[in-house]
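This part of the workshop introduces the protein records we will be handling. As an example, a complete record with its sequence and its C-alpha cells follows.
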Amino acid sequence: MSLGYRSQEDLAKALNEAARSIGLRISVTKKTIGRWESDAPPWPQADHAQALEALFNRPITELGFSSSRRSGSESPRPQAIGSRETWASRHAGAAPGMLPQSVASDFMASAAAYRHMYWSVPADRLQRLVAEHAALGWDHLDQIPGAARSLMARAVAETSLLAGRLEFFDLQQPELAKPSFALALQAASRADDALLGAAALAHMAFAPAFSGDTDRIEEARENLRAARIFADRGDASAEMIAWLDAVEAEVETRIGDIDRALELLEHAEQMYAEHDEDEAPSPVWLDWFSPARLAGFKGNTQITAGRAAAARETLERTLEGLPAEAIKQRAVVYADLAAAAVLDRDPEQACERLGEALDLLGQHWYATAMDRVKAVRQTLREWDSLPRVRELDEKLYTWHTMIRSRAV
C-alpha cells in the first residue's frame, strides 16, 4: 500500500510490468496475490520471486515468505542487514566456484539497458560491449545456482541476439553475426525459451537471403520453418507471428517471389488486427517491430513489385507512425521513398528524399540504410547531369560517409 497499490489487482499488474522490465514473461493474477497474502504463503516460483524482488527492491527473504515452505533443496538467500543486501550476504554459504543468484538479475538488467541504448549509442561502440557481455554471461552460466541459471541464460540469449542485430544490420558484418545468432540459440535452449529460439532462427534466415546466392534459398526457408515451430511451442503473440510473416516476406522479396511476399504481409496485418497486448503480451525484447515498421516492410516489397503509388502511400504512413528515436528506420524509409520517386521518374524528389536519409545517417550510422541510399543512387545514372543529382553526390561522398562505409 505504501507503494500505491490499493488492491490485489493493482499489485498483480505492477508485478507483471516489473517482470517484463527484466525480461520475464509471467502472469500474476489476483488469485496468486491471495495465496501470497495467506497466513502460510507458499514460496513463489523462481520467476515470480525475481519479479517481487524487482518491484520491492529487496530480497525475497524480506517479503514475508517462509523458507520452510520452499520447494527443493536449495537454501534461501541469507537475510540482509537492514533494508538492503550486502555483497557478503549474497555470497554467504555459496558453493566454491559458484556465483550468487543476484548475478543473473544483474545480467538481465544490463541486457535491458543495452536494448534501450541500441536506439541512441553508436553501433560500433555498442556492439563490442554487447558481444563481450554475452560472452561473459555464457562463460559463467554454469556457475549460477538453481533456477536463476534459466534467467541468466535468457539474458545471454537476448544480449547475443542484440549483438547479432548490430553486426548484421548496423555494421554489415554477417561473419560476426552468424556466431552471435548461434550463441543466442544455444542460450535460449539452456533457458528453454522457445520464443528467443524462434527469434534467433528467424534472424539466421537473413544472411542466406541477402547473400544473393540461389543455392542458399532453402537454408533461409528452413530457418524460418524452424522459427515458426518454436514460436508455436512458445505460444507466441499475434504480434510475434506478424513479425515472422514480415521476415519471411523480406526473404521472399529477396528471392523474387513477390506474390508470396505480399500474401505474407497481408497475413501479418491481419495478425496485428487481432493482437491484444493485455491478453497476450509480446516479449519485451521484441521492440524492433511495430505496425509502422510492418508498413515499412510492405512499402519496400511494393517498390520491388513496381507499385510506386501504393509504396509511397504505405511509406508515408510508416514515417507518421515511427517514434522520434527511430532514426535508423526513418533513414531506410526515406531511401525507399526515393526509390518510389525513381519509379515515378521524378529525380528531383528522389534526390530530396536521399538527402534526408543522409542527414539522418550523419546523426546515427546505419549500414542497411546506406546500402539502400547507394542502390537508389545507381538508378539515377540517366540523370547524372542534373544539378540536383550532382548536389546529392556532394552530400553522399564525404569524408564521413566514405570512412564509415569502408570501416564496416
